[in-house]
Amino acid sequence: MSEPNSRPWPHLVDLPMAAKLAAACFLVSVGVGYFSALVQLHFQHASPGSLMPSMKDVVRVFHGHVGAEPKSRLERLLIADEKRPFNGTGQMKVAFTTRSTDPDWKKAIKTRAKALAAQRVADGPMEPNQDDLEKAEKELREERQGEVNTIVAWVQAGAPEEAYKTNEFRLPAEIKDHKIETRFALQDGSPGGKLKDILDVRCARCHNKASPEDANAGNYPLESYADYKKYLKVEKATAISLEKLTQTTHVHLLSFSMLYFLTGVLFAMTRYPNLIKVPLAATPLAFQLLDISCWWLARLEGDTGVWFAQMIPITGGVVGVGLALQILLTLFDLFKMKGRIVLVMLMVAAGYGGYVVLDKVVIPHMKAESAAAAEKQ
User: Fold this and answer.
1) What is the four-CA torsion angle of 184, 189, 190, 191, rounded to 10 degrees?
2) How far apart are CA 203 and CA 150, in angstroms?
3) pLDDT: which is higher, 180 or 64
4) Is the bond preceding 364 in cis, omega lying within 30 degrees of 0?
């Protein structure tokens, strides 16, 4: 009967120098490779100007759209707060009010106020008072909001080209409180308005190539239905395709699992106590399985899918931290004092190199991304 094998588990420090160097180079390579995966993550999923994907980006990629239904650019610009910048990324609502020129907004208020003042007296013209001016502005805003509501309802109805061509768009008959300027009102008095006339006066007056008011706006003409159609598209965020998710899953489970196994075995051969080695050796492998499970469970509908999507940065973060600890602790256990001093010097040099790359490459790249995204919008 053979005796049980009582040979102790070998430690990395006992390996020959050639094996130590091979193990060290392997660990460094894995660390650099994981860092390159983070760089790829930035290019694939991070919003322009962000170093890494935000929680919102992660939910968008693995679950899809969350929150209010997305709107076309035209609708967004018309319903946005007037306090936002008057441009193609802020709002265009003031084109119906304070920035309107047909007629000039202040002149329109004064003209309406004079008419209100004339209604109060029977013995001739009278200068409007402050109450007349405030009431006039309120009435005009209600009428201009009626113009906005007509365009927005047209967009939400799918922007039918027929309504643009016939210059008539009718709101649902049950809408009773609909005010709009007489020149834009439908002849039969039903809710809605002369769609093309409204668009021509409020939008195309600047957005045409011959615009004397805004040369930049002329670069984005709105003189035909085809011009408006460019800004009617609704881009709804959809989750990563099943095909790509399957491909990413099998790549991670096959290749990354092998790397995490090898780094885990090397770490298990260090001289640290089992209280540290036992949980940490398997951490990257175990949490990678949880991470990938969350990828798939994030496709569930509703809050459940969103919750699993929000867990992905956490499980992925644990994988990264566990791998970093395995690499660093194993490297320091491989060598004695002289080797550790060399490791510290190399890490300081790597840290300085990382700072230079961050300052000279990464930050300028992120600024360029943000500028390009703003220009595209």
Assistant:
1) 40
2) 14
3) 180
4) no
Q: Could you say which DSSP state residue 362 is in?
A: I
By three-state DSSP, how is residue 91 classified?
Answer: strand
Residues 40 and 53: their CA atoms lie apart, in Å, by 11
Burial class (CB in 10 A: 0-12, 13-18, 19+), 291: buried
Rounded CA-CA distance 284/286 in Å is: 6
Per-residue pLDDT tens for 202-217? 988 888 877 655 557 7
Q: Find out whether 329 and 266 touch, Cβ atoms under 8 Å.
A: no
What does the alpha-carbon distance between residue 159 and residue 230 come to, in Å, rounded to a whole number?
A: 12
Which tokens hold the place of 168? 């008539």
Which residues, listed in sequence order, are joined to residue 104 by a DSSP beta bridge? 101
The torsion region of residue 345 among left (phi > 0), alpha (psi -120 to 50) and beta comes to alpha
Mean pLDDT of the chain: 84
Burial of 51 (0-12, 13-18, 19+ CB in 10 A): middle
Strand ranges (E), 141-265:
169-170, 192-193
Confidence band, pLDDT 50/70/90 cuts, at residue 323: very high
CA distances, 165 to each of 27, 144, 161, 173, 225 (Å)? 68, 22, 6, 21, 8
In angstroms, rounded to a whole number, what is the distance separating the alpha carbons of residues 29 and 364? Answer: 27
Residue 209, CA atoms < 13 Å, CB-side half-sphere = 3
CB 239, CB 299: distance < 8 Å? yes
Q: Is the pLDDT of residue 150 over 60?
A: yes
Amino acid identity for residue 192 in this structure:
G
Which pLDDT band, with edges at 50, 70 and 90, does 313 fall under? very high
Cα–Cα dist 207/145, whole Å: 20
Give the pLDDT confidence of 29-71 residue by residue, as tens digits. 998 888 888 888 877 777 777 778 888 888 888 888 766 667 8
Q: Read off φ and ψ for residue 339, nearest 5 degrees.
A: -65, -35
Going by pLDDT thresholds of 50, 70 and 90, the confidence category of residue 366 is: low
> For the chain, how big is the Rg over CA atoms in Å?
33
Residue 113 has pLDDT above 80, yes or no: yes
In this prediction the pTM is: 0.59
